[in-house]
Amino acid sequence: MSFLSMQGVGYTFPGWPPVVRGVDWEVGEGEFRCLVGRSGCGKTTLLKLAAGLLHPGEGHIRFRDRELATPGPDVGFVFQAPTLLEWHRVLENVLLPVSLQHRPTPAEIDKAHQLLAQLGLADRARHYPRQLSGGQQSRVALARALILEPSLMLLDEPFAALDAITREELQDDLLHMCRLRKTTVLFVTHDIAEAVYLGDRVAVMDAGRIVEEIQVDMARPRGPATRTSPAMSRHCAQVRHVMHMEAGYDRLSPNGGESVRPELVEGPQLVEGLREERA
User: Fold this and answer.
1) What is the reported pLDDT for 1?
2) I need a surface site. Which of 64, 186, 249, 255 has the fewest CB within 10 A?
């Protein structure tokens, strides 16, 4: 039985071509799945459907064998930007999901301090977001997402705006934190190397569909040697091959064989740029 199951899932914004088309996807408990694809292919929309932030127009999404209806405390979401509250200190930002339910208890405050310590921010608890670097703000956002100990974490390109060194450090932090908690992860990215380094499997999305999923056969835990290994290069090449298939638009045609014109495929990109964060 799948931990998260999508069956025939589709989503369309009124007046636009479908953003997500007939997605079937099964995710097992404790897995780290990555989703890659070009801008506008529907990645962010699919992630929001998995979170319960959007409801599918077609198909069904089941989480722990129950129909997914609304977001709940068992699902953590990390957005493209840290989205910290500037008028709250770091500790208060981490505790925000708790504060929305009740006044944080001493045990919950201790847990927030522990998360910050594990992410190298023990001495930043009383700082404001403006006093932090971009990488530190991203770590605070990660701690906030973990404070309720969700069984499922959804991340939408959380490290895209960071420099290469900080991005790699945060990738390792994320792997470590989720391994400790046995958290199931769905991670959206444009970065092929990031997807291969992080994921147990990498799904490739194009024109609203998952066209292929690649098993990443690399040992864990992963580290610096993994990034330059032959296996890393081989898996990256596999993903690149799938993403650049010349017949991609014909194979994905929703009308039974007639080619989908590139300008129509760009429709979801425009929708997501206007109505939600870009996929």
Assistant:
1) 60
2) 255
